[in-house]
Design brief:
By secondary structure, the protein is α+β, with helices and mostly antiparallel strands. Helices cover about 30% and strands about 20% of the residues. It has four domains: about 130 residues, no CATH class; about 160 residues, no CATH class; about 220 residues, no CATH class; about 120 residues, no CATH class. The longest helix has 20 residues. It is globular. The relative contact order is 0.09. InterPro entries: HET (IPR010730), HetReg/Transcr_Mod (IPR052895).
């Protein structure tokens, strides 16, 4: 975000805050009619612990790139803000009363890095202490139907409840019986076909989408909502839902914390507002209904454009964390960072800083001291923030789990060491699912080892280089569909001599080569969905070790369009398929497993005959390694035979399961103590990424002659 201020205006608006106290600024919006411009406000300072009641705004600085910035008057000085923020303040302003609001772009001096860091450090408390968090999604669009055509038929505003500030133009939703008049008015008008003359193709029925979300939140299954079954209305409602979820707010990283810690978050879309709870309950009902009523293939027209499925995924991503937060459950730093990694931030450092408020603790050292975590500091370069974060995560997990997943955009694409995560680099679509399953493996079989860092570049840990890659297949691209995925899988299968001709061969890791292949595709996992009382459970489990039939893979491989689940259009109504048309659960589960385990990854074979899947950047000649402290193997790439000289570099032990560890020739160090290294480190490697290697996932390698532990240096 960027406020346009000259230095004199900045000094006038932002006298130095007491950074040693919990002092914040608030804006007081002066009353005015909706159309009255410019918006006028003043800044006041408050102690956060004893502040007057205030509301906190959660918004996206820009909703689109076309709208020009707008001036407001703040403390009688012109202040230029984004059009989206201006629209939010205009909508939230009351006609007769002062409204007290915290808005980060205005209340924080954006030109003062020390103040920014201080205020970010107390951001959680700012939103927790607010009487209400106002989530501004954005203004209505050109083709949005906001229900204005119903005005006069019934009273649609709730009058004087959350967030309206006496503004008569706001239509309130409550998620309870108070919404019944709005529902009756909408549905009776639809039945009377009073909206038939409105444009159909591009119309986004926002009001209808709010109606559907209310019904879902009330526990009505999606397949019982008539307007979603009728082709005349469903497209416009789905367009409306997509318009709501298409707003930039849903993609921003800062809004995650703002929503999770809020006592009473309320969503605004133009002149419509509804409690977050209504959206959350709607997502829960749709999510559980998909399992309860087997709806994955029903309403295929709804799934195009991500619609309800996308809505549910985005809402539940935040709501599940919000519920854990309310229960005071601990938030693992690595889990939080990964969960919201795909969110966007203007400043890459905020990909870390924005979620720090959700982390209550970074754990404790063996001595009982609190572990050093990460603190917001805008004077530190992005690369150093990511370096410090990776170090802190290794300490916190006492493992190499932080190295699992997409680290960077490829070897040589970053100035950071290859083992440091670039949190601004987008992972593959289902990576959060894949990396969430690494606890199901144990490649090093209980050996945690030790991890040390030499200076700002070398990560050292004991491990074993097992083999080299001598074949790589094409990448299984994300989201390419079953037919194109099948083409890639068949190509992978053909790389294994005799496999496609049905010849039975033994696999180096045990069992048949064919079984090893299809187990590799799904990372040796099964996906189960079942009811447990009132709850619906989805979980990944390891497949049993004994030889089992490959029915799921076989069905998936020979499937065709005629046997897939579909819906039918009868008299303008979408009807459910008959039982003979329903795709088998095992087939759907295998497709999902394949997408999660191998999507965005590459099949490979080693010179000794091991097979597996690894990062898209895996190349011929790369090494397969099992590192102590990691549950999964890694693909490493030799650093062109170069050696790295430590000329008195400080050595930090991030964790050690032994009282002392040999770090470089002649350098003996104790945990938590810094020493200096003068060694010449040869055979250093770049980290390409983690891998699934069939036959190396549960410590099997330790029982062979190939297990030879040596220091592994990663740069």
């Amino acid at each position: 975000m960027s406020l346009r201020l000259n230095p004199r205006t900045s000094q006038y608006l932002y006298p130095q805050l007491d950074l040693g106290a919990r002092t914040i600024r608030l804006i007081e919006l002066f009353p005015g009619a909706f159309s009255e411009l410019p918006i006028r406000c003043r800044l006041i300072e408050q102690d956060l612990s004893y502040s007057l009641p205030y509301k906190a705004l959660s918004y996206s600085w820009k909703s689109d790139g076309a709208s020009p910035d707008v001036d407001i008057l703040c403390n009688s000085k012109h202040l230029c803000i984004s059009a989206n923020l201006h629209a939010a303040l205009q909508r939230l302003r009351a006609s007769q009363d002062i409204v007290r609001v915290w808005v980060d772009a205005i209340c924080i001096n954006q030109q003062n890095d020390s103040e920014r860091a201080n205020q970010v450090g107390i951001m959680r408390q700012i939103y927790q202490n607010s009487s209400e968090v106002l989530i501004w999604l954005g203004q209505s669009g050109r083709y949005d139907d906001m229900g204005d055509w119903m005005q006069g038929k019934t009273r649609v505003d709730g009058g004087g409840a959350h967030g309206t500030h006496g503004n008569p133009g706001i239509v309130q939703w409550f998620g309870d019986q108070r919404d019944v008049p709005k529902l009756k008015s909408y549905f009776s008008s639809a039945l009377e076909q009073e909206i038939g003359s409105r444009p159909e193709e591009r119309t986004c029925d926002i009001f209808g989408a709010f109606c559907v979300l209310h019904l879902l939140a009330s526990g009505i299954p999606v397949n019982k909502i008539w307007h979603l079954r009728h082709v005349r209305y469903s497209a416009r409602i789905v367009n409306g839902l997509n318009a709501i979820m298409g707003k930039a707010w849903w993609r921003r990283i800062w809004v995650v914390q703002e929503t999770i810690v809020a006592k009473n978050p309320v969503l605004y879309y133009g002149n419509l507002c509804a409690p977050w709870r209504m959206f959350a309950l709607a997502a829960v009902e749709y999510d559980t209904g998909r399992v309860r009523d087997k709806l994955d293939g029903i309403f295929s027209h709804l799934n195009s454009g991500q619609s309800l499925a996308h809505f549910t995924r985005v809402i539940m991503e935040v709501e599940s964390t919000r519920r854990s937060w309310e229960k005071l459950e601990p938030m693992a730093p690595l889990t939080v960072l990964r969960k919201f990694r795909t969110r966007l931030a203007t400043d890459p450092r905020d990909k870390v800083f924005a979620v720090l408020g959700l982390i209550r603790s970074w754990g404790k050292e063996k001595s009982g001291r609190a572990m050093k975590g990460v603190a917001p500091d805008y004077t530190v370069p992005t690369s150093q923030v990511f370096f410090q974060t990776t170090e802190a995560l290794i300490r916190n997990t006492r493992s190499l789990a932080a190295l699992v997943g997409a680290l960077q955009g490829g070897i040589g694409q970053s100035l950071m060491p290859s083992w440091v995560t670039d949190w601004n680099y987008p992972p593959s679509v289902n990576e959060h699912v894949r990396v969430g399953n690494i606890q199901l493996y144990d490649a090093a079989k209980y050996l945690s080892g030790s991890v040390t860092v030499h200076g700002q570049s070398i990560l050292e840990t004991p491990g074993s280089l097992i083999d080299r890659v001598d074949y790589v297949g094409r990448v299984l691209e994300d989201g390419q569909g079953r037919n194109r995925a099948k083409f890639t899988i068949v190509e992978w299968q053909k790389s294994l001599p005799g496999l496609s001709r049905g010849i039975t061969r033994e696999y180096i890791g045990g069992g048949s080569l064919y079984a090893a292949f299809w187990r590799t595709l799904c990372s040796d996992l099964e996906f189960a969905q079942y009811a447990d009382g009132a709850a619906y459970i989805r979980e990944f489990r390891r497949l049993p070790e004994q030889e089992i039939k490959d029915e799921s893979y076989a069905r998936w491989l020979i499937d065709d369009e005629q046997s897939r689940r579909r819906t039918s259009l009868v008299g303008g109504i979408w009807v459910e398929p008959t039982s003979g048309e329903i795709e088998t659960e095992s087939k759907k589960a295998f497709q999902y497993l394949l997408e999660c385990a191998s999507g965005g990854r590459r099949f490979f074979r080693t010179s000794k005959g091991y097979i597996g899947t690894g990062p898209a950047d895996t190349n011929l000649g790369d090494s397969v390694a099992v590192l102590m402290g990691s549950r999964v193997p890694f693909i490493l790439r030799a650093d062109d035979g170069r050696s790295h000289k430590c000329s008195g570099q400080p050595v930090r032990v991030l964790f050690s399961e032994r009282s002392a560890y040999q770090a470089g020739k002649g350098a003996r160090i104790d945990e938590d103590e810094a020493r200096y290294c003068h060694a010449l480190h040869q055979r250093c490697h770049h980290v390409v990424g983690d891998a699934y290697v069939h036959g190396l996932m549960t410590g099997e390698i330790k029982r062979t002659n190939e297990w030879k532990v040596e220091p592994i240096y990663m740069v």
